[in-house]
């Protein structure tokens, strides 16, 4: 896991220049997202002067284009923090896009905004998918990767070393099973197939959810496949049935093991492809007013 040194001066200036860090609870609060509307998870309200290192797991982007990092300061629980005047840019790590199915769907300007997905046990599918994605991000970081947490709307031309769309199914309460799919037009031995196979293999070995291939037009011709750059391999996982008590309990109670398995599958796929790097390199902190945004990845 990569550590980033934060000088004392940066911590003090960061707190002075970011009065917006007066958040509470689990809702993002800012000019672009009000409490109860846009739920990301816990928000870190600043860096203590004594905290000289952080672990960065992932990043995401607000509707206004500002960058937020999912990180673990040495003195606080894991949470989200605005980049402020600091940007973290990837350099020498594999970059993996993790699309959280149905997350922030209200930002979509199409029928996607009304597709709420499955539900069960008081959880929406977006809730479950975000739990899974953030677990995957933490385990990717431990394996030398950095994750982009992508919402319902994937930026056109998005580039990464690999992308995985994370979903959960819904249906009759007795129905169970997971499956991993790839674009319908992709070759049987191509990178999309290799990515799907690697994730399915590791996931199946880690959980007692049965592998039931329910490949459909929705999974073979998923809209997200057409948003990423042609050079970026992408697959989709339906991790289990949120509407089934057994599958749901496994997805919740084994979320860390699930995250580790998916991360392992992704990294095995990437490590088998010698020299396969789309736009990566390591994490470094630099003072800058610019934002590192995949929307500019043309």
Please provide a written account of the structure.
There is one protein chain. Helix 2 crosses helix 6 and helix 3 runs antiparallel to helix 6. This protein has a single domain, classed as Aminopeptidase. Strand 3 and strand 4 form a beta hairpin. Strands 1, 2, 3, 4, 6, 9, 10, 11 and 12 form a nine-stranded mixed sheet that branches. The two termini are 29 Å apart. It has 298 residues and is α/β, with parallel strands linked by helices. Helices cover 25% and strands 22% of the residues.
Q: Provide the CATH top-level class.
A: Alpha Beta
| SSE series | EHEEEEEEEHEEEHHEHHE
Q: What is the overall silhouette? A: globular
The CATH architecture name reads: 3-Layer(aba) Sandwich
**Content-based structural category:** alpha/beta
Number of domains: 1
What fraction, in percent, of the residue positions are helical?
Answer: 25-40%
Short description:
With 298 residues, the protein is α/β, with parallel strands linked by helices.
Keywords:
Aminopeptidase, nine-stranded mixed beta sheet, globular, two-stranded antiparallel sheet, alpha/beta, 298 residues, disordered N terminus
């Amino acid at each position: 896991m990569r550590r980033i040194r934060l000088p004392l001066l940066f911590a003090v200036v960061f707190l002075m220049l970011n009065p917006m860090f007066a958040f509470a609870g689990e809702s993002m609060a800012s000019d672009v997202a009000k409490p109860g509307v846009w739920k990301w998870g816990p928000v870190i309200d600043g860096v203590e002067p004594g905290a000289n290192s952080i672990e960065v797991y992932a990043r995401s982007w607000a509707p206004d284009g500002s960058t937020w990092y999912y990180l673990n300061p040495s003195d606080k629980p894991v949470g989200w923090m605005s980049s402020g005047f600091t940007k973290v840019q990837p350099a020498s790590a594999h970059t993996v896009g993790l699309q959280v199915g149905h997350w922030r769907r209200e930002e979509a300007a199409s029928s996607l905004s009304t597709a709420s997905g499955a539900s069960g046990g008081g959880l929406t599918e977006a809730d479950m998918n975000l739990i899974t994605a953030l677990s995957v991000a933490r385990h990717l970081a431990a394996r030398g990767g950095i994750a982009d947490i992508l919402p319902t709307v994937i930026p056109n031309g998005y580039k990464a070393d690999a992308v995985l769309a994370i979903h959960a199914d819904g249906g009759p309460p007795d129905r169970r099973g997971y499956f991993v799919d790839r674009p319908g037009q992709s070759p049987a031995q191509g990178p999309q197939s290799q990515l799907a196979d690697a994730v399915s293999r590791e996931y199946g070995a880690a959980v007692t959810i049965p592998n039931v291939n329910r490949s459909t037009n929705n999974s073979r011709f998923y809209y997200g496949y057409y948003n990423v750059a042609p050079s970026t391999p992408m697959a989709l996982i339906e991790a289990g049935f949120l509407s089934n008590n057994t599958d749901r309990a496994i997805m919740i109670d084994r979320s860390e093991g699930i995250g580790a398995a998916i991360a392992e599958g992704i990294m095995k796929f990437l490590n088998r492809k010698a020299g396969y790097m789309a736009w990566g390199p390591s994490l470094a902190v630099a003072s800058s007013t610019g934002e590192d945004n995949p929307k500019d990845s043309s």
